């Protein structure tokens, strides 16, 4: 079982290497194999939408079945992508209070667990492998059947098509044990016990293609298959029946995120989620997010909204970086300032910060645009610890566009759709109005989009849009490949930072 990098993007490049940093090394995106990844020559299905859950908003979906289903046998399948990496967080739960049943992640290590104290068992089952890569999508399948004579056949857990067989805590359900799942008590997606208890443990991250099958213990091959070219586990359409309380949530309707499309009409009530929480970041096209795993200096940063919003605390200079980097091509992203301080910075960095005062632009391969009232005209851009006059200040609600031409080594900034210094990102090697000529050889080999601040006393907040925005978009603009949703027009030849664009390399 691959640990940490079990999501689809980790396996493209390094199938046996742990990506505990949450950064996808992108060498393989440019090799000859990449052109065959999209489209795929096997019965893969595209998952177009996901739902973004935020614990700070108590986001969840809830349903109370009108009648009981099979309490001994069922299967839950879903694609999940983490953002916050602390505490227990639940995918799916059943029970209005104790007793209750739940499945989800446990703690910072991302140990998958199952617990249900409705019957005589009650002890949790906790997997040993770590699943904490915030850049990855994981396909998780829980398959239960307590009518099985052999205890090990009563509970099965699969991640990305592979059965998990190592557990730190393992007490199999008793023969014919009945769970809280499929009772007439409240069932929730994204938290425990309908969010009503002190241990609600709201999920932080995204879920896609959530399927529950009442009355069958299924294999993961009902929901996915290994791509014969890439050996990556990818989704296929479920073609079976669902049972009485079964459902399928595809999150295709932003106005009804709890809509069951299985044909059973087992719809879920939407709690605190809005249309903005519909995401196009899925296992079929994985978009960059901010990276909560990038070093100990991130202890003071809080990541929410699917790791697309970062909240800082005093003393944290070091930036939040994108999970995906690049060293070729032309890439575009937007960043909404939500709490601008005097030394708020947005830009790119060429290496992970190594100290808490390693702000964007301190190193020779870091380039930043500084906003805030104290920046003024004297300290408005920075590279290699040198500040110089540039552009205008920005404040709360402003959107800063960052366009990076890594082929011609140029970077451009725009404030609310207007490029500074009449910058023209399409000017190629001429670099008309470019903020900087960037190094062609960043220290780490890749550049990463980044947001942060210069002063340890400041606490700026940012929302990042790499193509799947965590905030409302008024106009809607995609890149030339039709990927991404941006407030402002994507310059010709530039692309959203997502796996489909990386595989095609802008093609």
Would you write up a description of this structure?
The chain is mostly beta strands. The protein has two domains: 8-17 and 43-279, Jelly Rolls (Sandwich), CATH 2.60.120; 296-504, SPRY domain (Jelly Rolls), CATH 2.60.120. It has two helices and 32 strands. The protein is elongated and about 75 Å long.
Which parts are unreliable, with pLDDT below 50 for 5 consecutive residues or more? 1-41
Overall mean pLDDT stands at 84
Helix content: under 10%
Beta fraction = 25-35%
Structural class: mainly beta
Secondary structure tally: strands: 32
The coarse silhouette is elongated
How many distinct folded domains?
Answer: 2
The top level CATH class name of the largest domain: Mainly Beta
Radius of gyration over alpha carbons? 23 Å
Per CATH, the architecture of the largest domain is Sandwich
Largest sheet, in brief, is:
8 strands, antiparallel
Whole-Å distance between the termini? 34 Å
Report the total helices: 2
Q: Determine the CATH topology of the largest domain.
A: Jelly Rolls
Summary keywords:
Jelly Rolls, elongated, mainly beta, eight-stranded antiparallel β-sheet, 507 residues, 2 domains
Q: What's the topology here?
A:
Blueprint: H1 8-13, E1 50-53, E2 60-63, E3 73-82, E4 89-94, E5 101-106, E6 111-116, E7 125-127, E8 138-145, E9 155-159, E10 162-163, E11 167-169, E12 187-189, E13 205-214, E14 224-226, E15 233-235, E16 247-249, E17 269-271, E18 278-279, E19 302-304, E20 309-311, E21 320-321, E22 330-339, E23 344-349, E24 367-371, E25 381-383, E26 386-388, E27 399-405, E28 410-415, E29 418-419, E30 436-437, E31 448-453, E32 461-465, H2 499-504
Antiparallel strand pairs: 1-13, 1-18, 2-12, 2-17, 3-8, 3-13, 4-5, 4-12, 5-6, 6-7, 7-11, 8-9, 9-10, 13-16, 14-15, 19-20, 20-32, 21-31, 22-27, 22-32, 23-24, 23-31, 24-25, 25-26, 27-28, 28-29, 28-30
């Amino acid at each position: 079982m691959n640990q940490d990098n079990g999501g689809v993007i980790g396996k493209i490049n390094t199938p046996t290497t742990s990506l505990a940093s949450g950064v996808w090394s992108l060498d393989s995106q440019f090799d000859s194999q990449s052109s065959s990844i999209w489209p795929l020559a096997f019965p893969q299905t595209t998952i177009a939408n996901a739902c973004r859950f935020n614990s700070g908003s108590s986001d969840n979906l809830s349903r109370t079945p009108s009648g009981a289903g099979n309490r001994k046998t069922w299967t839950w399948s879903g694609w999940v992508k983490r953002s916050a990496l602390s505490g227990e967080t639940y995918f799916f739960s059943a029970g209005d209070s104790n007793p209750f049943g739940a499945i989800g992640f446990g703690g910072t290590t991302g140990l998958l667990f199952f617990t249900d104290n409705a019957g005589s068992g009650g002890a949790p089952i906790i997997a040993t492998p770590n699943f904490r890569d915030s850049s990855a999508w994981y396909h998780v399948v829980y398959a239960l059947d307590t009518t099985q004579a052999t205890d090990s056949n009563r509970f099965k857990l699969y991640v990305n098509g592979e059965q998990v067989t190592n557990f730190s805590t393992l007490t199999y359900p008793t023969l014919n044990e009945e769970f809280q799942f499929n009772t007439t008590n409240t069932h929730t997606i994204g938290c425990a016990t309908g969010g009503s208890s002190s241990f609600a443990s709201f999920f932080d991250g995204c879920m896609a293609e959530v399927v529950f099958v009442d009355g069958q213990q299924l294999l993961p091959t009902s929901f996915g298959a290994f791509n014969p070219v890439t050996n990556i586990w990818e989704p296929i359409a479920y073609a079976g029946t669902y049972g009485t309380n079964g459902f399928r949530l595809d999150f295709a309707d932003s106005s009804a995120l709890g809509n069951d499309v299985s044909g059973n009409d087992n719809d879920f009530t939407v709690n605190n989620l809005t249309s903005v929480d519909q995401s196009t970041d899925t296992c079929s096209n994985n978009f960059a997010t901010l990276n909560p795993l990038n070093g100990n200096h991130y202890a003071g940063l809080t990541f929410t909204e699917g790791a697309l919003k970062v909240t800082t605390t005093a003393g944290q200079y070091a930036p939040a970086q994108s999970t995906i980097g690049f060293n070729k091509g032309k890439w575009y992203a937007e960043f909404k300032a939500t709490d601008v301080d005097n030394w708020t910075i947005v830009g790119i960095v060429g290496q992970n910060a190594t100290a808490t005062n390693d702000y964007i632009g301190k190193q020779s391969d870091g380039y930043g645009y500084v906003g805030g009232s104290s920046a003024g005209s004297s300290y408005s851009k920075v590279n290699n610890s040198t500040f110089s006059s540039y552009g205008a200040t920005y404040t709360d609600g402003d959107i800063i566009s960052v366009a990076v031409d890594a082929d011609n080594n140029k970077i451009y900034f725009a404030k609310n759709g207007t490029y500074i210094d009449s910058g023209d990102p399409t000017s190629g090697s001429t670099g008309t109005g470019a903020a900087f000529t960037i190094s062609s050889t960043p220290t780490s080999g890749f550049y990463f989009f980044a947001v942060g601040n210069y002063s340890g006393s400041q606490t700026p907040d940012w929302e990042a849009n790499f193509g799947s925005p965590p905030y409302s978009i008024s106009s809607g603009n995609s890149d030339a490949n039709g990927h991404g949703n941006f407030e402002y027009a994507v310059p010709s030849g530039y692309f959203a930072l997502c796996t489909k664009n990386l595989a095609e390399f802008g093609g």
